[in-house]
């Protein structure tokens, strides 16, 4: 659930940041406070630590000639060892620091050990030893500072520790913000690519799952795909319109030229010009129908009556092509809201397309029934159908399964596009699917309900 929720990511992220700041502060404080503990152990009541007892035993029992070697061997980064006689001299002839002299002076037959601590300085521990030749001697252990200069500065200055915590929180917040805004930066870059005309630009995102940023990326990709499809459709529409207009205009120019060159054929050419002008007018009217704005649906129509009339007319026309159209329904009335003759034109175009492609000696089956709160109109032909990859495109303007078909055999390819736009204006839907018999077109229209 955490991986799929941006809110939880932010919550846990800021929680971890706060915890990291607190933990870093506590760890630094704990580390700084723990450094003197090795001295505290020496300062505890009771016998000295084991390594000190071993050192004292060796210093008391080794021959005098071996003492310098032992002292040199025991020197380490952790401490310096001084063996001081009653005159305050070191057995190795080294200069004795004041703090070491002070510790040695406190060693008496009555006080056999001492520990000195100075603010900001490592502790000094002194112990009494007895040798047969020299009598009372003092071994003094001067512990060295173990902390790095930076750590000493952190231990001495609170503002440095606060600065460390601020820098650490800033680093964590930066990493978190980069993680959270990475998808937004991709969105910004891809949007810029789209604006520059690269319509195939997409955001790389998994197909499903993820958090809200992944959902946003998928929605953006969907929008980009629709935008690319619409722009390509507009380009294709412009190309198709140019192509469709070019042919009748070319014929008009030829007919006009022939009329000018051969006055005797002028009446014939004028008829040709009139036919081409009518075709241009028809094409322009259909184009305007596909691009018409939404209209207010303030009228009512009975689908039963409308389809009976349209199917009867289509059946009459289809007989000349050795085809037929049949209509069936169990409904007595099917009222829907409409405007003008939008639905009549829509179903006329669908029926004309079905009759055009149904097989010879077959019938187009039209059925009307109720589905939930809608009326469903199905138009089934007995034709060859449509390739599955082309089913969504048959409602595009100027679409033809066979691009080589002429205007005479195939029309302009605007009928189904006009029908789809009109059905959408009625808050309905239209789709096509292949069946065993041929192509099935399904239209859903919302039922009219009196308020």
TrEMBL record:
Q: Mention any one GO cellular component term assigned to this protein in its UniProt record.
A: plasma membrane
Q: What Pfam family does this protein match (any one)?
A: HATPase_c
Q: Give residue ranges for domain Histidine kinase.
A: 240-449
List the catalytic activities from the record. ATP + protein L-histidine = ADP + protein N-phospho-L-histidine
Q: According to its UniProt record, where is this protein located?
A: Cell membrane
Q: Which UniProt keywords apply?
A: ATP-binding, Cell membrane, Kinase, Membrane, Nucleotide-binding, Phosphoprotein, Transferase, Transmembrane, Transmembrane helix, Two-component regulatory system
Output the CDD domains linked to this UniProt entry: HAMP, HisKA
Organism domain of life: Bacteria
Q: Which InterPro entries match?
A: HAMP_dom, HATPase_C_sf, HATPase_dom, His_kinase_dom, HisK_dim/P_dom, HisK_dim/P_sf, HssS/ArlS-like, Sig_transdc_His_kin-like_C
* Keyword Kinase among UniProt keywords: yes
**Residues in the signal sequence:** none
Q: What is this protein called?
A: histidine kinase
Q: Which organism is it from?
A: Sediminihaliea albiluteola
